[in-house]
Amino acid sequence: MLLSVLLWAASVLDWKSQGVHARPATTTAARRDDAKIDWGSVRCPVENSLETLPTPTYPSEKGMFLVCTELIINATPQEIYHALFDFRAYPTWSSFVRDIALPPEVVRTPEDVRVGLVTRFTTTGIVPLLNTTSVEIVTVMKGAFGDDDVGEKNTSTSPPYLMATWRYDDELHGTASRSEHPSILVDRGDGTTLYTSYETYFTGPGTLLLLPFKQTLQKQYTQQGLDLKAYVEKAK
Ligand SMILES: *[C@@H]1O[C@H](CO)[C@@H](O)[C@H](O)[C@H]1NC(C)=O
Ligand SMILES: *[C@@H]1O[C@H](CO)[C@@H](O)[C@H](O)[C@H]1NC(C)=O
């Protein structure tokens, strides 16, 4: 409780100081240059840590809180990547994401999914008895189709990985809340994949409202990983 108060105070101060400088929203491409990150080596911090993780759109910004899940899936990175971008199929396997609304030009998923695609997710279980909706924009598709630009280091020694990312859009130019959700799929070389999936929530008044739901969000992300594992392993 005390911790929440401290975090809240810290974030309000931080938010105000950002307001003074009134930094314009930098483009993703520009931001990617300042922080080259080896995404294939990103892992969840230890449980209950206050550490957060960088994301592709906001690589050098300090997160306010993080939810993160990591597990080994008995499928290839390509098979999991396919499932992550098969937005139409989510209601058939996910107990968290109940629906993903897509613009009319997106007929087939994952084939018609592109970086910049604007979707509306309907999720359940965050607030009891209510569905929550959020606009999510695809930001990284490092995989079998689409854009390969993830601003990564030249790490020819790291194991190969694929990456699927979307960011939350508050429809207020990020002034209320910014968060982004990367899923990183590291090839373990034996037909299995290390799935690391997280969402970093950045400082903002909207993020403060979400803070009390952190444990619930963590529970839902953990369950989402288990649902995904069950789904792709069953499809094999
Ligand atoms: C939540 O969304 C799902 C899928 O769109 C729908 O079937 C369900 O009735 C909704 N529940 C509530 C409480 O609105
Ligand atoms: C990465 O480094 C290797 C070894 O130095 C080099 O051969 C390769 O061209 C580099 N790749 C890129 C994309 O810069």
Automatic annotation (TrEMBL):
InterPro entries: PTS_HPr_His_P_site, START-like_dom_sf
Coiled-coil region: none
Highest rank taxon of the organism: Eukaryota
Keyword list, A-Z: Signal
Signal peptide annotation: 1-22
SUPFAM superfamilies assigned: Bet v1-like
PROSITE patterns named among the record's database cross-references: PTS_HPR_HIS
Protein name: Polyketide cyclase / dehydrase and lipid transport
Record organism: Apiospora kogelbergensis
